[in-house]
Design goal:
Belongs to the ABC transporter superfamily. It is a multi-pass membrane protein. InterPro entries: AAA+_ATPase (IPR003593), ABC1_TM_dom (IPR011527), ABC1_TM_sf (IPR036640), ABC_transporter-like_ATP-bd (IPR003439), ABC_transporter-like_CS (IPR017871), P-loop_NTPase (IPR027417), Type_1_exporter (IPR039421). It is built from 18 helices and ten strands. It is an alpha/beta fold. The strands form two sheets. A six-stranded mixed β-sheet has the order 6-7-8-3-9-10, sandwiched between helices. The protein has a four-stranded antiparallel β-sheet with strand order 2-1-4-5, covered by helices on one side. The chain is elongated. The two termini are about 60 Å apart. Bound molecules: adenosine-5'-triphosphate. The site of adenosine-5'-triphosphate has 12 residues, from helix 9.
C-alpha cells in the first residue's frame, strides 16, 4: 500500500517529509511512555528516590516539548501536504493523459478520467494525510512499546509479540472483506452516477413516459447501492468482531501475566503498573487501526484507479521524429487494424493528393471513422503504414502532425466561453483580420452578426447556445484559422436546416479549393459526393471501390447504389414525412429497403 502511494506521486519529497515527521512523533510517543518505567520504579517504593527520578523527569519533559513542537509543525505541514499532493497528482494525471493516444478517450474512459481528477486525486491526497499519518502512528507506537518492554520484562514482550501477529491476521481478513465491499460499493455508486446523468439528459423522454422522478433502472440502481452497503456491513461484522475479540483477549492475557509475575515476586508493583500502562498503549492503537482499515482500503482503491490510468502507455514517439511535414499527401499502404479481435480495416490502400477532396462512403461499421482516426494517429496500425507527406505517421512528431490536421466531427464540442475564444483555440495569437477571414470562409460571420454580443457571445456548455450546423461552422473556421493542410470531416448524417446545410457545404468546398490542402470527408450528401475528386467505398473494413464519383456512378456498383439512395432519401425528406437517410442500409439491395 505504502509502495503504491509512493510510486503514485511524481515528487514524493513532501510525502517523505510527512512520513518522517509522523514516524519520529510515533517513536517519541513510545519512548516517552517508556520513561514511565524508571519514574514509577523510583517513586513507587517505600522511600521515593527523587535523585534517581530527576534525570528521567527532565528527559520526559524535553521529549514532551519536542513532541509538542513536532506536533505544531506537523499540523500545517499536513494541511499543506494534502493540498499540494492533490495538485501534484492532478497535474501529473493531466500531463500523462496528454501523451495518450486520442483513441484512448472512449466515453467510458472519459468518465473514469473525470472521476479520477475530481474525486480520486483529492481522496488519495487527503486520506494520505488524515488516514495515512494515524496509520503510521498506530503501527510505530506499538512497535516502539514492544522494544521498550523487551528491556523491562522479556515475558511480557513475548506476549505482546504473540498478540501482534494474531491481531494482524484478524485485521488483514477484515481489511480484505472491507476492500471487496468497497469495490462493490464503488461500482454501485458509478451505476447511480450513470443513471443520474441519464435522468438529466433524458428528462423529455422520461416525462413523456411519466417517469420524470427516475426510471426503473435508476430506482434499481439506488436499491442495489443500498443492498450492497448492507451486504458489506453484514460481511465485515464477523471479522471486525474477531479482531476486537483478539485485542480484548490479549488484554486479559496481559492482566493474567502481570498478576502472575507480581504474585511470584518476579516483577515489583511499580514495574507491573508501568507494564500495564504500556500494554494499554500497545493494544489501543491496534484497535484504532481496525477503524482506519476501511478508509485505508478506500484510499488504496482510489490509488489503484489512478495508477490504472497512469500506467497506460503513452503514444510511442520516435527519437528522431520529423517536425515538419513537407506536403499534405495521405497514403494508406496495405493497412490492417483491429480494435479487438475483429478486424476494423483489412488491407486498405489508397492515396489522397494535396488539393483534392476524398469522400469516404460505406455502411455503418464499414471502417470510415477508423480511416479518419488512423490519419490523425488516434491509434497505431497493426500492419502496413499510414503516411503523411510520404512519412509514416509513427515517425512524425505528434504535435507537428496535429498542427497540420483539423478534425471536424459531427458533434462539435465547444467550450463554455465566447465564440472568439473558441475560435482562438486554433491559433491563440490570431489577429482580428485573421479571425474575420476565417469566419467569412466558414460562413460563420453571418452567425456572429446575428448573435446578441457578436464575437463576445458565450456559447454555453458544449456550445449549447448554437445549433449543430453553427457549431460545425465554428469548427470549420478553426481549420481555416490554423491553416491546417489536412482536414478530416465527418459530415453530419442527420438533417441540418437548409441554410446551415448550404453554408457547411460551401465552407467544405472552400476548404477543398486550397491546392496545398487535402480534405477527407465521411460523406452523407450527394452534393458532397459530387464535389469530391475521389470516392472510396468501404465494405467490412476493406476497399470495395475506388475512383472518381462520376466513374463509380457509371459503373453501377456499391457506390452508385449508395448515391441513388442518398438522393432518394433527400427527396423523401423534402417531399414526404418518411424518415430520412438514417433508416437506409446503403449496400443492401434496394428491394430490401424500407
Ligand atoms: N473504440 C472502438 N472500440 C472497439 N471497436 C470499435 C471502436 N470503434 C469502432 N469499432 C468497431 O470497428 C468497426 C469499424 O467502425 P467505424 O466506426 O470505423 O465504422 P464507420 O463506418 O465509421 O461506422 P459509422 O458510419 O456507424 O460511424 C466496427 O465494427 C465498430 O464496431
Amino acid at each position: 500500500m505504502i509502495g503504491n502511494l509512493y510510486r503514485l506521486w511524481p515528487h514524493p519529497r513532501l510525502l517523505i517529509r510527512l512520513v518522517a515527521l509522523t514516524s519520529i512523533q510515533a517513536v517519541l510517543q513510545g519512548l516517552l511512555l517508556g520513561c514511565l518505567v524508571p519514574i514509577l520504579r523510583a517513586l513507587l517504593q517505600p522511600m521515593p528516590d527523587f535523585a534517581q527520578v530527576t534525570p528521567w523527569l527532565i528527559a520526559g519533559a524535553v521529549g514532551l516539548a519536542v513532541y509538542w513542537v513536532l506536533n505544531v509543525i506537523a499540523t500545517p505541514v499536513g494541511f499543506a501536504a494534502s493540498m499540494e499532493l492533490a495538485a501534484q497528482l492532478r497535474h501529473h494525471l493531466m500531463r500523462h493523459v496528454a501523451t495518450l493516444p486520442l483513441g484512448w478517450f472512449t466515453g467510458d474512459r472519459k468518465g473514469r478520467l473525470a472521476r479520477a481528477i475530481t474525486a480520486d486525486c483529492g481522496h488519495a491526497a487527503t486520506m494520505t494525510v488524515t488516514i495515512g499519518a494515524p496509520a503510521i502512528t498506530c503501527t510505530l507506537v506499538p512497535a516502539t512499546i514492544f522494544a521498550v518492554t523487551l528491556f523491562v520484562d522479556w515475558r511480557m514482550a513475548l506476549l505482546f509479540a504473540l498478540i501482534a501477529p494474531l491481531s494482524f491476521f484478524a485485521l488483514r481478513r477484515s481489511s480484505r472483506i472491507a476492500a471487496a465491499a468497497e469495490i462493490e460499493l464503488e461500482a454501485a455508486a458509478t451505476e447511480i452516477a450513470g443513471r443520474a446523468i441519464e435522468l438529466g439528459q433524458a428528462q423529455p423522454v422520461l416525462r413523456a413516459a411519466r417517469q420524470s422522478a427516475g426510471s426503473a433502472r435508476m430506482r434499481a440502481a439506488l436499491d442495489e447501492h443500498r443492498a450492497t452497503y448492507r451486504r458489506g456491513l453484514g460481511r465485515s461484522l464477523v471479522p471486525d468482531l474477531a479482531f476486537t475479540g483478539v485485542v480484548m483477549a490479549g488484554f486479559v492475557a496481559v492482566l493474567c501475566l502481570g498478576a502472575k509475575l507480581l504474585l511470584d515476586g518476579e516483577v515489583p508493583v511499580a514495574e507491573n503498573v508501568a507494564l500495564l500502562v504500556l500494554a494499554v498503549r500497545f493494544l489501543e492503537p491496534l484497535g484504532t487501526l481496525s477503524e482506519l482499515v476501511g478508509a485505508l482500503r478506500a484510499m488504496d482503491n482510489a490509488v489503484a484507479r489512478l495508477r490504472s490510468i497512469l500506467s497506460t502507455p503513452p503514444l510511442p514517439q520516435a527519437e528522431d521524429a520529423t517536425r515538419q511535414i513537407a506536403t499534405a499527401e495521405i497514403e494508406f499502404a496495405d493497412v490492417n487494424f483491429a480494435y479487438s479481435e475483429t478486424p476494423a480495416l483489412r488491407a486498405v490502400s489508397f492515396r489522397c493528393e494535396p488539393g483534392t477532396m476524398t469522400a469516404l462512403v460505406g455502411p455503418s461499421g464499414s471502417g470510415k471513422t477508423t480511416v479518419i482516426r488512423l490519419i490523425a494517429r488516434f491509434f497505431d496500425v497493426a500492419d502496413g503504414a499510414v503516411r503523411v507527406g510520404g512519412i509514416d505517421v509513427r515517425a512524425i512528431d505528434q504535435a507537428a502532425l496535429m498542427d497540420d490536421v483539423a478534425i471536424i466531427f459531427q458533434d462539435v464540442y465547444l467550450f463554455d466561453d465566447t465564440i472568439e475564444q473558441n475560435l482562438r483555440l486554433a491559433k491563440p495569437d490570431a489577429t482580428e483580420d485573421e479571425l474575420a477571414a476565417a469566419a467569412q470562409d466558414a460562413r460563420l460571420d453571418e452567425v456572429i452578426r446575428r448573435l446578441p454580443a457578436g464575437w463576445a457571445t458565450r456559447v454555453g456548455e458544449g456550445g449549447a447556445q448554437l445549433s449543430g450546423g453553427e457549431r460545425q461552422r465554428v469548427s470549420i473556421a478553426r481549420a481555416f484559422l490554423k491553416r491546417a493542410r489536412i482536414v478530416l470531416i465527418d459530415e453530419a448524417s442527420s438533417s441540418l436546416d437548409p441554410e446551415n446545410e448550404a453554408a457547411v457545404s460551401q465552407a467544405i468546398a472552400q476548404l477543398a479549393s486550397d491546392p496545398r490542402r487535402t480534405v477527407v470527408v465521411i460523406a452523407h450528401r450527394p452534393a458532397t459526393l459530387d464535389r469530391a475528386d475521389q470516392a472510396i467505398a468501404l465494405r467490412d473494413g476493406a476497399v470495395a471501390e475506388i475512383g472518381s464519383p462520376e466513374q463509380l456512378r457509371r459503373s453501377g456498383g456499391a457506390f452508385a447504389m449508395l448515391y441513388r439512395q442518398y438522393e432518394q432519401a433527400r427527396g423523401w425528406r423534402i417531399g414526404s414525412n418518411r424518415p430520412a437517410a438514417a433508416s437506409f442500409n446503403p449496400l443492401k439491395p434496394e428491394a430490401d429497403q424500407p
